[in-house]
Design brief:
The protein has about 230 residues and is an all-alpha fold. It has one domain. Helices cover about 90% and strands about 0% of the residues. It has six helices and no strands. Helix 4 runs antiparallel to helix 5. It is rod-shaped and about 210 Å long.
């Protein structure tokens, strides 16, 4: 009965708890199915063997009961015919058979219990495999969706980082624009100051009168005797 010890975890296995503990449920469900298929082959073979033991034990028990009933019948016939000695021999033999029946009944009960355990294990495996097969595609689809969501979350986080970088870049760009505007303004002020100095210098010479006008004024004054 080592098979019962080797596969007792199968009887207590809980599919949901196994999948909950799995890092990758999609891979876990495939591996669990492969393990169950392998276990099912062994359980089937062992179950068939133990069921055969049960059948044999039941047959031997029935044969002993039939033999006991026949000996009882022969003993009764011997008494009817007045052959008490023969009746006694049949009853002695029947007692021996009845003792074997007690032992055979215990063996059959044990074989029957073992067969029930194996049939239960077999049915549990078959049901687990059927359930896993029916849920495998759904589990894999959920895992794929979860992984896709994880990637989207990661991309979203990266986009958030890029957004922060863009904000910082815009601040630097604004600062650069301000520096350029300030430099241009300073250049314009410097240019205006230089132009003002040149204009003042030109004005100094522009105030000098026209020579022809001065000559004409002198001739006019001489004519009028206003020298």
């Amino acid at each position: 009965m080592g098979i019962l010890s080797r596969f007792k975890d199968i009887m207590s296995a809980n599919i949901n708890s196994l999948l909950d503990r799995a890092e990758d449920p999609a891979k876990m469900i495939d591996q669990y199915l492969r393990d169950l298929e392998k276990d099912l082959g062994e359980v089937k073979a062992e179950t068939a063997s133990i069921m055969a033991d049960e059948t044999r034990a039941k047959r031997e028990l029935d044969e002993l009961k039939d033999e006991s009933a026949k000996l009882q019948s022969y003993a009764e016939k011997a008494v009817v015919q007045g052959n008490d000695g023969d009746a006694r021999e049949f009853l002695v033999q029947k007692k021996k058979v009845d003792e074997k029946i007690e032992s055979a009944e215990k063996l059959y009960e044990l074989a029957h219990a073992n067969a029930e355990k194996m049939r239960g294990m077999h049915d549990k495996l078959v049901n687990d495999i059927a359930e896993l097969n029916s849920r495998r595609d759904t589990v894999k689809a959920k895992v794929a969706a979860a992984k896709t969501q994880e990637k989207l979350n990661e991309i979203s986080g990266n986009i958030h980082d890029v957004s922060n970088t863009m904000n910082q870049f815009e601040k630097m760009e604004a600062k650069a624009d301000h520096m350029l505007d300030q430099a241009n303004a300073m250049s314009e002020l410097n240019s205006t100051s230089a132009k003002s100095t040149i204009d003042e210098l030109k004005g100094k010479y522009d105030e000098v009168g026209d020579a022809s006008i001065d000559d004409e004024l002198a001739a006019l004054k001489s004519k009028l005797g206003r020298e």
